[in-house]
Structures are given as C-alpha cells and as structure tokens.
Amino acid sequence: MNDFSWLVPLPVVLPLVGAGINLAAAGRTRVQRIVSMTTLTVILLITMVLLFAADQRGPQVVQVGGWAPTEGVVLIVDRLSALMVIVSVVVTMAVLRYSIGQGRSSFDNESDGHAPLPVFHPTMLVLSAGVSTTFISGDLFHMYVGFEMLLAASFVLLTLGGTEARVRAGVTYVFVSLLSSMLFLIAIAMIYSATGTVNLAVLADRLDQIPTDTAVVLHVLLILGFCVKAAVFPMSGWLPDSYPTAPAPVTAVFAGLLTKVGIYALIRTQTLLFPDGTLNNVLMWAALLTMLVGILGAVTQDDIKRMLSFTLVSHIGYLLFGIALGSPAGMSAAIFYVLHHITIQTTLFLVTGLVERVGGTTASSHLGGLAKISPLLGILFFVPAMNLAGIPPFSGFLGKVGLMQAGVAEGGWLPMVLVAGSVVTSLLTLYAVARVWGRAFWGAAPRADEGMTYTPASTGNGRAMGAGVVLPTVSLVAFGLALTFVAGPLFEITDRASLDLLLREPYLIAVLGEGRPR
Amino acid sequence: MSPNITLILVAATLLGTGVYLLLARSIVRALVGFLLMGNGINILFMVASGPAGDVPILDQGDPDQMADPIPQALVLTAIVITLAMTAFVLSLAHRAWQLGRDDLLEDDEESARIHRRAEENDMSGESTDDADVIAAEFAEEDTGEEER
C-alpha cells in the first residue's frame, strides 16, 4: 500500500544535502544558484507525488531506522502535510528566484554592499528543510528539532549583514523565538512524564486515558508555545518589530512560512491530541482579538512593510477562528486559508521589495505617483492587495466566505461575534491596503527638495524593474490567482483533509497499524 | 512513579532565575537567563525519565531495572541545540557591542515614533518631518561607522 513512502524523508534530506554542497561551493554564485533551484524543483515534484499518494491511498508513513512508533521517530505525510510542503516550496522557490534576479542576496546598501553573501543560499535551504521537517514529523520532539532548524536559519537570515537595525530587530526575535521553543520543550517534558511517549499517534491514544485536569495543563502549555510562534494576540508584539528590517526576500519568506508553522502545529494539536475542544472558546477569543488588534495596528502604519506585518498578525486570527470552530467546514476553510495566506503575504512582501527598488523607500509618506512610473508595479501590488482584503472573486474572498459559513453553521453567540469581527477586519484590511495604494501609487510625487527623487540606482543592480525580479513576482501573483481557479478541487481536498484530521482514524491506523497497541 | 522532589526544586529554581534574567535589557544577561532555563528544562526531562536504574542495553539485565533511555536521548539533542543557539546569541551580543559599545536592547524607532504621535494626538498622518529626523540620525551613525 505504501508505494511512495520512500519519498517521505526526501523533502528534508535533499535541501540539507543541497545546503552542504552550497556551503562547499561558497563563492561560486552560479553553482549555488543551480543547486538551490534544482533541489527545490525536485522537492516540488516529489511532494506533488506525495500529495497524490496521500490523497488516493492514505497517509504515507516512514519509521526511521525501523524503530517502533514508541521508540523511534515516525515521518508521516497526509493531505495536510503534503499541501503545506507544496505551498512552502513554491514560495521558497519564488523568493529564491527573486533574490537571484536581484543579483545579490540581501537588499542592503550598508554593509554587504554588492557582494552576494555566500551563506544566503545554504541558509534558505536549511530553512526549507526545517519547515518540511515540522510538516512531516509524526513526533513531538522531532517537531521541536524542526522548529529549531528553521529558527537557526531564520536568525541568520534576519541578521544578514549585521547592521545596527537588524541586530536590534534580531535580538527581539531571537529571544522571543527561543522562549517559545523553551515553552514547547517544557510541554514535551511534561507530556513525556505524563504519558511516556512523544509520538503523536501514540499520544492521541494515551492522552485520552490520563486525568482531564492534567490533560488541560499539557494542552495549555503546548498551545502557548505554538501561539507565540504563530503570533497570536497577546503574544504577537514581536512580529511587526522584527520582520520589516530584514531584506525584502527574507521578510517575504518569513511572512509566508514561519507563523504558518505554528498554525500547522496548532492544527495537529487541536485535532489529533486534544479533539475534545476544551479550549475552543479561549482560542476563539484569541482569534477575535488577534484579528481586531492586528488590523488596528496596520491602519496606523506609514511604512508598507510594517503595515503588511500587522495584517499578517491580523489574518492569523482567521486561521485560528477556523481551527477553534473544530467543525469539518471550519477546519477545511482554515486549511484553504493557510494556503492562500502563505502565498499572498509572500507575494505582497516581494512586491513591496519592488516598490523599494523603484521608489528607494517603503515609507508611504515618501512615495507617490508610482502608477505613472510603472503601471506594471501598480497591477502587481493591486491584485494581491485586493486578494488579501478578500474582494471577490479572489481566493481570499473564498477562504473568508468558507470561514464565515462555517462560523454561521456553528451557531451560538461567540462564533457569530467572530463572524462579525472577521467582516470588520476584512473591511479594515481593505482600508489599510487601499490607503497605501492611493498614497504610493496615485498621490503626488515626492518633493524634489527633500532629495527623495526616485533613484533606482541606489537599489543595486541596474534596472529597478528588471526581468529577474519581476518574473518571480509575476509568477507568484499568478499562483495566487490560480488558487481562485482551482478553488473547487482544492476545497475538495481540504474537505477530505479536515475530515481525516477530525476522524483521527486514518492517521492513527497509518502509524500504529490496524490493531493499535494502547 | 513518584517524581523526584529534589530535581523538581532544582529545575524550578533554574527556570525562575532564568526567566528573571531573560527579562533584562542586557543581551548577555538575557543569554545567561536562557542558559539557566535550558538547563532547568533538561533537569525536567530527568524528572520525566523516572528513577535511576541499570544501563539500558538490550540483553544485559532485567528490563524492569533499566533506566528509561529516551528522555536522555532527548536531553542530549536539546543540549546540542541550546549550545548552537548560545553560540549564535553570543555572536549577536558581540556584534551589538561592536556597533554601539553596548549590549543593551533598544526600542524600535518606528513604534517609538507612533507612540510619540499618539501622545501628541497627531492624527494628520503626515509624518515626513519626524521620519526625516530619524533618517538623518541613521545617516550620521553610518558615517561614524565608516570612520571607525
């Protein structure tokens, strides 16, 4: 039955091998580029096969080293993991192509100058390996290792070049991330002492058997750690503080992937380990506050990158809403929205990188009249921005409608308040992006006496809107649009994925076998 | 299994002092806090592994008398990861000290500016002057850097 299970470890192994080759080839930019792009393309193909296999034949499982689930690490790809890996690889590829097109790794005039940083490509591949590890591991501790892999890589990427602003932002980010990892580790230690295992499938069985109050303590600990990672209010303050200082491609990949890893972990916890939904009401309140506080923050921002960081926080609330509903429809819409949101946030940050190349800044008060200079840039910003705000017929609209339908179907006053809250958030998002759109693209051009004339030369290699950076952005915008066109089949897959998640049986049987040991 | 109370006290002390130090603005202090917390959690794993026992090698004695090896493997991994993170944070602290002769964590300029505007009740949204001042400050710092 498991014909394709030998493919399961490859999304982790290949990028690590690629990263090794890239480190050995430090200084040979061309070799690095070829290796990274080939690796990612191969992984993309592999995960597509895995998605097909997981969809048609059930979850694909590998028991590493042949150890039984209680002793060893289990790797498992079900529909959810496969979808997440595919989207993460797609955005990583687009971002890498963008930074290749940029000619150097970081958009930085201060210290690394025009030299491509030799560590950029290896680190991106390690990041990709860490993200994949988290998505395919069927073991809490292995998930922690995946988190640490991607964190270490993200620390390096965030502080690339070591300028003052980046070190300042880096310190905040590093300590918050380390703290959340510690929370997660404490939770793992507690869970091990309560149940004697860290394997997710075995845990699912054993957690049912321990006293409810103990289970609630473990549940809260796990969720706290993940919520910090996912930037759920009130643990979201670190995100807008640290993301905007990084180079555009780095911010783009962070915005797309890092918080979603926390969301993925939350989905697993809520469905597999604690399916009884004791904390669903708490999560709903957190979702509501995340949405509203996040978007109110976005409205006050002047800098486009910071505005986008706040919308990122805000839209995490939608995902949390879907998870907290705990119904098949809600979970399905949440998974769809995760896929949409990874793509759209990455796209918007890449487009903002283009705005920075053309305009020399991302402060919207210093921008203006960009639509005249580059109509293409206008379209590239407009389409994903409207997608983010959830204007029909884009995928953002479909995801939001899915969530609202699920909320209405759930009934009760709290889901209804959340539905109202998500409408308000959606409108405020529209206001925030429309304001930036109006100022940067239609407002008066910047005053010449400030010396803020548009000088693309300050942005590095030659033309600001060169094909090397525009094509990856266009393709990602197109991918975002494609989500609308395949929304029907995609929703069918996410429906099946969410049913599997909530039933738990397919996952448990895949890992433990038919007659599962208790 | 009754947990080992000494280990729990040690872990609690380490975690408590760790959290206290982590709240400091100095990067090195926070790093020490992180290290203490890390060790506290490692000891928590030792609590989780239950009472000490024989060497856990297969076919060498009674399995009932063996110590549980899995938490020890987990702790080993956690120690390695903590070491790597410590190295990174140390280099970060060194870089911060290089740049500013200080390892204190500073406030975010942009959010400080928004706070200031909120206090002044400035609703105009036109913040160019303020941003220019900050940009000028940055430019000065940059030139200072090159001279050094």
TrEMBL record, chain A:
Q: Which residues form the signal peptide?
A: none
Q: How does it sit in the membrane?
A: Multi-pass membrane protein
Keyword Cell membrane among UniProt keywords: yes
Key word Isomerase present in the record?
A: no
| InterPro entries attached to this UniProt entry | CPA3_Na-H_Antiporter_D, NADH_UbQ_OxRdtase, ND/Mrp_TM
* Residue ranges occupied by any NADH:quinone oxidoreductase/Mrp antiporter transmembrane domain in the UniProt entry: 137-424
Q: Which UniProt keywords apply?
A: Cell membrane, Membrane, Transmembrane, Transmembrane helix
Record-annotated membrane-spanning stretches: 6-27, 34-53, 73-96, 117-136, 142-161, 173-194, 214-234, 246-267, 282-300, 307-328, 334-355, 376-394, 414-434, 469-491
Q: Which Pfam families match?
A: Proton_antipo_M
Q: What is this protein called?
A: Na+/H+ antiporter subunit D
Organism in which the protein naturally occurs:
Ornithinimicrobium faecis
Q: What is the lineage of its organism?
A: Bacteria, Bacillati, Actinomycetota, Actinomycetes, Micrococcales
From TrEMBL, chain B:
- In this chain, the stretch annotated as Disordered covers 107-148
The way this protein sits in the membrane is described as: Multi-pass membrane protein
Q: What UniProt keywords apply to this chain's record, in alphabetical order? A: Cell membrane, Membrane, Transmembrane, Transmembrane helix
Respond yes or no to whether keyword Membrane is given for this record. Answer: yes
Biased composition, class Acidic residues, residue ranges: 121-148
UniProt xrefs under Pfam families: Oxidored_q2 (PF00420)
Which InterPro entries does UniProt cross-reference here? CPA3_antiporter_subunitC (IPR050601), NUOK/Mnh_C1-like (IPR039428)
Enumerate the transmembrane spans: 6-23, 30-50, 70-93
Top-rank taxon of the source lineage equals Bacteria
Q: Where in the cell is it found?
A: Cell membrane
Task: State if Metal-binding is listed as a keyword.
Answer: no
Basic and acidic residues composition bias: residue spans: 111-120
What NCBIfam families does this protein's entry cite? PRK07946.1
Q: Which family does it belong to?
A: Belongs to the CPA3 antiporters (TC 2.A.63) subunit C family.
Protein name, UniProt field:
Na(+)/H(+) antiporter subunit C
- What is this organism's lineage? Bacteria, Bacillati, Actinomycetota, Actinomycetes, Micrococcales
